[in-house]
Amino acid sequence: xxxxxxxxxxxxxxxxxxxxxxxxxxxxxxxxxxxxxxxxxxxxxxxxxxxxxxxxxxxxxxxxxxxxxxxxxxxxxxxxxxxxxxxxxxxxxxxxxxxxxxxxxxxxxxxxxxxxxxxxxxxxxxxxxxxxxxxxxxxxxxxxxxxxxxxxxxxxxxxxxxxxxxxxxxxxxxxxxxxxxxxxxxxxxxxxxxxxxxxxxxxxxxxxxxxxxxxxxxxxxxxxxxxxxxxxxxxxxxxxxxxxxxxxxxxxxxxxxxxxxxxxxxxxxxxxxxxxxxxxxxxxxxxxxxxxxxxxxxxxxxxxxxxxxxxxxxxxxxxxxxxxxxxxxxxxxxxxxxxxxxxxxxxxxxxxxxxxxxxxxxxxxxxxxxxxxxxxxxxxxxxxxxxxxxxxxxxxxxxxxxxxxxxxxxxxxxxxxxxxxxxxxxxxxxxxxxxxxxxxxxxxxxxxxxxxxxxxxxxxxxxxxxxxxxxxxxxxxxxxxxxxxxxxx
Length: 489
Prior knowledge:
By secondary structure, the chain is an alpha/beta fold.
């Protein structure tokens, strides 16, 4: 695909044209021709299952702003973003954003932290979201708000943007090299893991006391929970067998149920992964990124360092353990599941399909619609196997102007219970809510996946939609971002 021109979705002006383009790519992506509104819209249908009530099928994904204070408290930028989450009309707020369970667990020195000294600030975020939601949706009936709890593991940078402080579960033959970790770099001890488990317990109790309806014990995107799932090479009680690799989850859940008995638990999971990708050096020059290619893996087969990966062909998915993991969630009475894929650090085209790469990424190795379809079909397959779970789907923003038609079809056909919006919420949080009220779509606000919301934080700046959101477009940070992008051309 790297030598082929990718058709920009913005040039397609009709649903029929989009459907024809999807067929030309050999893909199956459901897409309704007519958008329904009010009670007729599948996106407005309530969801009641296993004692959980959600007022519609629109979800807000965890969207970090990298804009908190050094002490982990929210800023004005954070408050603005959470108000926009409320304005979205979505009845399921999945985390708002990732909140670190301790200072040392932060992915950046501006990530929010949940602690006693940040309790008032986090409470204000929740209250502002609810206030805005009531104004937009008319009522907070059926509104379910979670807080995503995270430890950044291998990607910890709590002190400075340019100072990695990795906490690793095991040595990875590719990712260790990328982080310049020596062979003797220490892995987390069992005792240190026990301390982290207790941090999750403390954080969950605080979230419960603040009134959050659930917490997400994050198991995606290469962070600590996700890394445990692929810790086959680790010795001891947290590595090797599937039972050992899920011990962290079980111990976190057990403690949360003890200290916060009324709190629901969800899990955002990278359902499948891939061997890490890198820019093709043969097609990269003068600072210009080449298309992504997989790292050389011939000497690493069978591949033991991924979760949801075919060990014989680590560029392909294997749902064997994913199904085993979801079965475990059912046994643990965890009904809220948010499916995503890969990692923004080493497989962004799988995790977040986009036409334009972030500064540390690579040109798309495939039409991004292939990545959208891959995530949608994975979600469809797993949803069919686990009808009792409430499953949120990811990867929709690249669909751009045709997101509403695809989202409506996916829910109508039962491919997914709720459609999660990530990048799109930064520029156009009301998109799906608007279409269910027969409001005209504001096409100038549609996310075009320019990836500035990722390039900015990769360079120590707040995340936001710099191309389309005037709040960021006119800021001093936009000038800094433009300079970074010029330098990298």
